[in-house]
Amino acid sequence: MENVNNALGNLNRRMTDRSPHPPISFELFLREMYKTPEIVLRNVFQVFHDMISTYLGSGVDEYPNDPESIHYVDYNCSNLFEVDSDRPFFADRIFANRLVNLVEGMRRGAQQNKIYIFNGPPGCGKSTFLNNLLRKLESYANCDEGMRYETIWRLDPSEFGVTIDKEPLFEQLALMLGGERENTLNHLHERFATTGSDGLVEIPCPSHDHPILIIPKHYREIFFRDVFKNSDFLETLFSSKEYHWVFREKPCTFCSSLYRALLSKLKNPEAVHKMIYARQYRFNRRLGEGISIFNPGDRSPENSIIHNPLMQRKINALLKDSSEVFYLYSRYAKTNNGIYALMDIKSHNTERLIELHNIISEGVHKVDDIEENVNSLLLAIMNPEDQNNVREFRSFSDRIEYINIPYVLDLATEVKIYRHTFGSHVEDLFLPRVLNNFARVIISSRMNTRSEALLEWIGDPKKYNLYCDENLQLLKMDIYSGIIPSWLTEEDRKSLTARRRRKIIGESDREGISGISGRDSIKIFDDFISTYYKQDKLINMSMLVDFFLRKKRDLMRSIPAGFLDSLLRMYNYTVLQEVKEALYYYNEKQIERDILNYIFAVNFEPPAVELCTYTGEQLKITEDFFESIETRILGSGVGASRRWSFREETQKDYTSNTLTQDMLVENRPITDTALFRALQERYVQNLKQRSLDPFLDNDNFRRAIKDYSTNDFKTYDKRIRDDVKYLMRNLRKKFGYTEQGAKEVCIYVIDNELAKKFEI
Predict the structure, then answer these.
(1) What pairs with residue 340 in β-bridges?
(2) What's this model's pTM, rounded to 2 decimal places?
């Protein structure tokens, strides 16, 4: 019993903490506005922007100091679309940047006279996106950080010389519910006039007007100058377009007519302003307050005009006039300064879109003889084929802003979907890079095979045939993911201007609308794992190629010709370099001595015997001496004439730049000169390229890899054991392989004779 009482007490306290803020007087509201104008003076567009910014944060720009950066930012969308969601939506980098650009435009004032339609193919997650977005907006709008105020009138009958009876129904409920009346009945009577315990008649604005709008437009400028006279916000208010609505918008017809009637009746603006209160504008999608979303099958009610006879009687009794103020409104008023959303433009939603025409064009809606203001954020989602439903309405063409939601084009996001669907452990089933390569195959089906922007930039794709396909899709995937590949030449890296990068990203507007859908990719991935997963073997690249070439040959129609071959070549070359890097070890001091001796020796004609001034070694300078070092720097396939010319170039560079400029003028040690670093880099790189040579035809080396970490491994020669241990350790440490993965990738490299295939 004690546990139950404690739990119930804690629940009551938590619910009390989350209860709506009580209404505050107009004067207190203005004080709040003065303290935090950026928070209080927000319409739905600014709140929408602030909500997106709050959940996404500032994002990460991997190249912040790049003068050619286009600020194509990596936003973490999980808090917005995934956390606390039964069906998460995974926004790729392209769409996240598109969404941020959209809301930034809203914040700057590009707000009205538009409907924003999120357009995308079936299976891209449009419905999930909109549902999750509105759920987060509802949560944000109802918390302190996203709170906004709406107008509520609290009229004192004594000011009018009348007495208003309390409503019998509400009062009976109040007696039954005791002290919880205010909180419990909030949603029940929020749209109805009630007589409070203090005898005041409460009338909420039917259109959820911002309280500041009740100030007549022609008084607002001087009023704000008085309020913010000594505030830094004054200049922002008058100069920033995001606050133009404060001066431009009018209150709803009911509030403006009631305001005029009260001024006429009481002859005292102060008394009228004391009857204006502000309360929290709470969104409730289920009740259609602040947010309404309509599905194509939802029929429109026969009577779209809402009357409130009880409220009208009280207003008439107070004002003693039945024709001055009318309390009636349409269902659009329930989402004024909120969100009105259509889920797919078809069936009844096509009719709703047509009804929005005047609202989109003029911002008003006719309710009987009354004009009703509608300043809502209008959203919709649409399949591309449904555009025919609005194409015939030409007047809509400049009122619709389409925002594309494509199939995922960002590699990291596609992989994230697989991890979410099949569990984070799914990566443990693959050799490194293979899971990413599966995602690349899927994404390739969603991309165009020709990119004018990339061809203008790169020219001939064949120069990157070790890293890319002939359509440059692999390069574009990296750029879509925010990566500028390290394998690009310095010339191409420098020529990747901001204009070119924007043009490449801009091509995404025409991609992701066909190919393998998100739903289908999950089914295909499930089939892939089921076919090839074995407990004693990781899924490798050979299996991936086999799956698409033999098991799923029908999918090859969606995958660009030659893409799979290029992907395999890129993978093979990359893992070969990893194994070579992991196996490479050499005495760094010996490399340094060789280079210093060589730089010294090029200044003498062979044969000669000289004491090297850099190492202190006595050198026998012969053709064999030069050939042994030049072979390590240039490679074994280089002829004598190339070695001679390289020797002359090195000697010329040494005498004209290294010795005279770097060492004598700038006082650098020789090991800190450009010549030394260039020779060292070529020396090391060539050694790495040849690091596998001693083991390629050594069957014992291959068997030792297979037997690594077993008792049989102890039977091998110590030198082979040391080499295999070194190789395994480096693959795990440098490239993130597991022990099993390191063994399998080495066997893959050896059995497929990759070193011979990529001999230069």
Answers:
(1) 292, 378
(2) 0.81
